[in-house]
Amino acid sequence: MTDPLPPQAETVIKTGATYGRDLAERVLATFLQAFVGGLVLTQPFDLGMWQAAGVAGVAAATSLVKGLIARVRDVTNSASLAKGV
Predict the structure, then answer these.
(1) Per residue in 33-73, pLDDT tens?
(2) Are the CB atoms for 66 and 27 separated by under 8 Å?
(3) In the chain, what are the helix, strand and coil shares in percent, each to the nearest 5?
(4) How open is the CA angle 29-34-39, to the nearest 5 degrees?
(5) What is the pTM of this model?
(6) Pick from 33, 27, 68, 23: which is nearest to 53 by CA?
(7) N or C: less crowded end of the chain, CB within 10 Å?
(8) Reduced to 3 states, what is the DSSP secondary structure of residue 48?
(9) What 3-state class would DSSP assign to 27?
(10) Which residues contact 69 (CB under 8 A, 6 or more apart)?
């Protein structure tokens, strides 16, 4: 049975901060992984460094959108689409 009282303001701020930190970490990790992957591909496919950074930016933006959808979809404290995370 759930508690009929609304959560305390401190709890809401903590969960929002936790979600924000989780989402920022995921977006940054996605950018770095895509950037390193792009740099590895610059030689064989004749891409410039800034093109690789652009590809990484698109990957990070996609990660951001996924994290925002995850918050709306199910669990409000996590940027993961997996249940129970």
Answers:
(1) 888 887 777 777 777 878 878 888 888 888 888 888 877 77
(2) no
(3) 75, 0, 25
(4) 130
(5) 0.60
(6) 33
(7) N
(8) coil
(9) helix
(10) 81
